[in-house]
Amino acid sequence: MNVTAPAAPLPALKAAQIAVVIPSYRVTRHIIGVIAGIGPEVSRVYVVDDRCPDGSGAFVTANCTDPRVTVLTHTENQGVGGAVMTGYRAAILDGATVIVKLDGDGQMDASLIPMFIAPILAGEADYTKGNRFFDLERIGSMPPIRLFGNAMLSFMTKLSSGYWHLFDPTNGYTAIHADAARYLPFDKISKRYFFESDMLFRLNTLGAVAVDVPMDAVYGDEVSNLKVSQVITEFAAKNVRNFFKRLFYNYYLRNLSVASLELPIGVALSIFGIVFGIVHWIGSAQSDVATPAGTVMLAALPLIMGVQFILGFLNYDIASVPTRPLHMKTLFRRRSNG
Question: What is the largest CA-CA distance in the chain?
Fold first, then answer.
């Protein structure tokens, strides 16, 4: 991605208010160590007790002396997405510049936080997320089922979110500029395991710039609650839903372009060619008469044209990934209004 120099000075790392949100659910064995590993670049830490049966919020309050830590408690379990949204709201109200989401199970290296916030502070991105597949030499430690599951989920998320350059969509190590986060529909974002993928869909509809940050895959003694075999169908259905919603928002509601025509025309021609060909193939098989060349062409030509139209749409969609950070637009708008 080519990034032009910002027209106005950006806040330096020391001047920026960096907040960390840690969803807390059955992580009492690790969370104190996670907090201890957070560097001095972070000014506030929000531990969100998501109705944890182990009382992780009270555990942190009793055992953590870090003055940066604030414990937020849910009276009902809301899932990782709900916990993160609670942390986002608190961080925005407290004036955070960038909000980092860090898991409490010790599988995310807190020393990488500067790498996640650097593209945002440099005006190159609104949202950064980890990518455990960047270094092919190091992904051998990842269980095969996770490799397969992530590959499938990554393709589905590329299609539904429009961020074709991103990978590893379920990676929960993320950072977001507060000016982009405040535009998110907090109450509509998925609160369970689909949270990370749904975030990408929402960010794309806002025109936010998202980039991957290379990181290593780390697996400790924590057992993941995410079972690929159980969620693959749910993720597929929700990604299909988001894909059609994104099409409507980006290609018909907010803007009309050649791509807005290419996709429906391509789909219609492809369906016609397939149905027409199947019907006549069955008829020829039943009558034991060879299908005329003209009939074959009437089936093949619409199908070929339809595929070309669909490929044209995909080419346009891939080239339409947001490149100008949303928070830079709002920065200039606030300064002009001021």
Answer: 85
Q: How far apart are CA 267 and CA 330, in angstroms?
A: 38
Q: Which residues in the chain belong to E strands, given as ranges?
A: 18-24, 44-49, 69-73, 98-101, 127-131, 174-177, 210-214
Contact status, residue 81 vs residue 200, Cβ threshold 8 Å = no
The residue among 146, 148, 241 whose CA lies nearest residue 194 is 241
CATH class of the domain comprising 18-252: alpha beta
Domain ranges of the chain: 18-252, 256-319
Burial tier of 286 (Cβ tally within 10 Å: 0-12, 13-18, 19+): exposed
What is the spatial distance between Cα 115 and Cα 119, in angstroms, rounded to a whole number? 8
Q: How many CB atoms lie within 10 A of CB 173?
A: 24
Evaluated on CA atoms 5, 98, 206, 171, the torsion sign reads positive
Take residue 11 and report the two structure tokens written for it: 């806040």
Identify the DSSP state of 173.
Answer: -
Instruction: Give the integer Cα–Cα distance in Å for 195 and 179.
Output: 20
Chain-centre distance of CA 179, in angstroms?
A: 17
Burial class (CB in 10 A: 0-12, 13-18, 19+), 152: middle
| Confidence tier at 287 by pLDDT (50, 70, 90) | confident
Q: How many CB atoms lie within 10 A of CB 242?
A: 25
Strand 44-49's sheet: what is its strand order?
69-73, 44-49, 18-24, 98-101, 174-177, 127-131, 210-214
Q: Residue 335 contacts by C-beta under 8 Å, 6 or more apart in sequence?
A: 8
> Chain-wide mean pLDDT for the chain?
87
Rounded Cα distance, 235 and 245, in Å = 15
Whole-prediction pTM value? 0.86
